[in-house]
Specification:
This protein has a single domain, classed as Creatinase/methionine aminopeptidase superfamily (Creatine Amidinohydrolase, Alpha-Beta Complex). Helices cover about 30% and strands about 25% of the residues. Strand 7 and strand 8 form a beta hairpin. The radius of gyration is 17 Å and the shape is globular. The two termini are about 25 Å apart.
Length: about 250
């Protein structure tokens, strides 16, 4: 969406704060032995306490309040009875709706002690995001975000998962424009002030190729390599973007 007035910005900031609260609450419970279903319940309770609801459940009938993906699961993991283990990477991907507005964010959290490669992968996803913020500004084209992201990821020895990327958001989960994590020549839209998008490097320690698991939702790496995900919802301005889902 494109923000039309201060009231819409206030609504988006409000739902963005709820997304951050949900992620922080789930992150605080990440430890060996905890199930992804338990983490999902923790997040759902925060949504309910704030008068909000799960946007994936509302829009797509996703079978969980949030997407929780482990290790080689890149995105859209279904919460269940699988228990976290020392060394796992867990991705907490949260999209919330309140009063007709939506915001989306994701982080990758280590479970206990993780491998050096896993640590580097997490850091790379976050670093690629922050470097992309230098071009996530009015007057730049959308593909320039992907150019920066892929350059940083490749330089670090990893691969972007090209089928997955950011998107417009605001009134529903997935709006235009698509925000690729590579310099897709079709992503030529010039960003303008007030445009609301997500930027979300989703990367792999392997080839970057994925497939849909038998559950019909979870996207996994074909070579079973680790993946990491880092995301915020942001508002484009003439300068640094407004990160709606950053720390309160």
């Amino acid at each position: 969406m494109s923000i039309q007035d201060e009231q819409e910005l206030a609504h988006l900031k409000s739902v963005g704060r709820i997304v951050r609260q949900v992620i922080d609450a789930m992150k605080a419970e990440v430890r060996p032995g905890v199930t992804t279903q338990y983490l999902d319940h923790v997040g759902a309770r925060v949504m309910q306490d704030n008068g909000a609801q799960s946007a994936p459940r509302m829009v797509y009938k996703f079978p969980g309040a949030s997407c929780i993906s482990l290790n080689d699961e890149a995105v859209h993991g279904i919460p269940g009875d699988r228990a976290l283990k020392d060394g796992d990477l867990v991705k907490l991907d949260v999209t919330v709706e309140k009063d007709g507005f939506m915001a989306d964010a994701a982080i990758t959290v280590p479970v206990g002690a993780v491998s050096e490669k896993a640590e580097q992968l997490m850091q790379c996803a976050e670093r690629a995001f922050h470097k992309a913020m230098l071009v996530a500004r009015a007057g730049f084209r959308v593909f320039e975000i992907g150019k920066v992201v892929e350059h940083e990821v490749r330089k670090s020895g990893f691969a972007v998962i090209r089928e997955l990327g950011g998107h417009g958001i605001g009134r529903t989960i997935h709006e235009q424009p698509h925000v690729p994590n590579y310099p897709d020549p079709q992503a030529r839209q010039i960003m303008h002030e007030g445009l609301v998008i997500t930027v979300e490097p989703i990367i792999s320690a392997g080839s970057g190729r994925i497939f849909t698991a038998k559950d019909g939702w979870t996207l996994r790496t074909t070579d079973q390599s680790l993946s990491a995900h880092f995301e915020h919802t942001l508002v484009i301005t003439a300068g640094a973007p407004i990160l709606l889902t950053a720390e309160c």
